[in-house]
Amino acid sequence: MVDLGLHQDPPLEELSTPDRLDIRRIVYHCVYCLDRGVSTALERTLSFSDGSVNVALPSVTTAPGFALADASDVFLHSAQPAWHIVKIRQILSTAYHNKYEYENEASLPNAISTWTLCYKAQEWLENAPQNTAGPFTILYTLESLYTTVIILSPMHRFIGTSDYSKVLLFEHCMDYIRKLHQILETPSLVPLMTYLDIQRAYQVSSWFLDLLDRHSELVLNRSVPPLPNIAFETPEPPVIDNKDRANCHARASVCLDYTQDLLQYCLRKWGIATLLDTFQTISASARKRLMQSPAIYIPGAGPYVTGPPLHPSAGGGYPGYHHGHYGL
């Protein structure tokens, strides 16, 4: 793509028709989103840097070259909800790049600091198009949660995160797995589950298990750690809900069960057992530790119980799915 020059809008004197320019931009942003999604989930080097890019978003709202009356129902809807995804992938790209570029959290410039990027990810979600149909609401939430996990996660030389950051990462890992599992619980959304989602689930669960292994007393403690010291102009860190901390043992157990459900779906769908086998091996000690924990209370489940709580079945099948429902 870089060799073809698609990562740069052409000079004004070389501009052709608006449709051709939009096609260039559509191709670029689709490849960009794919590269950022795959590279971060597989923890590979980005194919090209954001600094080398100068491409505006497409201006089209329907398929280029199609009159509205002749377009299929797939293209009758605005493309704006899809292009909104590009913006969160740009935040994701910056966060992922930070892990390799800077020695530690304190060395990050304020404009791309951990808490600034967390704020941008939340702001992106709050500014999402409001008139979207179908699965965009849950897809937006998943993108925001995953991006925040990447922002908070340790990687390569990026070390020295605060206790508050560790607990916040722990919470977002559970939130991401829970939200992704909702797709399995909704038959009409199941066809939207991709292998990239499964790879992300495995990646997030790895950080989750690492926190349980290295910092179990911290992340399973009911108390919320004090906020870290931040510069005056830096946005406040996301708030950790004290109510969730009171039941973190149960939620951690459910998170492990939900992750296993997702990886079992991967085995059924694509016949790939590696992720499930590895997860079952590395999660065994965490499951044992949670099973041996004191009795935990699960709201709505009656009395105190021990061990991981039951959760809804993921279900299966594709009833009710129709591509035209979603306006993609």
Automatic annotation (TrEMBL):
The lineage of its organism: Eukaryota, Fungi, Dikarya, Ascomycota, Pezizomycotina. InterPro entries: XnlR_reg_dom (IPR007219), Yeast_MetPath_Reg (IPR052202). This is Xylanolytic transcriptional activator regulatory domain-containing protein. It is found in: Nucleus. One of its GO terms (molecular function) is sequence-specific DNA binding. Its main location: nucleus. It comes from Neosartorya fischeri (strain ATCC 1020 / DSM 3700 / CBS 544.65 / FGSC A1164 / JCM 1740 / NRRL 181 / WB 181). One of its GO terms (biological process) is positive regulation of transcription by RNA polymerase II. It holds the Pfam family Fungal_trans. Residues 2-93 form the Xylanolytic transcriptional activator regulatory domain. One of its GO terms (cellular component) is nucleus. Keywords: DNA-binding, Metal-binding, Nucleus, Transcription, Transcription regulation, Zinc. The keyword Metal-binding applies. PANTHER family: TRANSCRIPTION FACTOR, PUTATIVE (AFU_ORTHOLOGUE AFUA_4G12570)-RELATED, ZN(II)2CYS6 TRANSCRIPTION FACTOR (EUROFUNG)-RELATED.
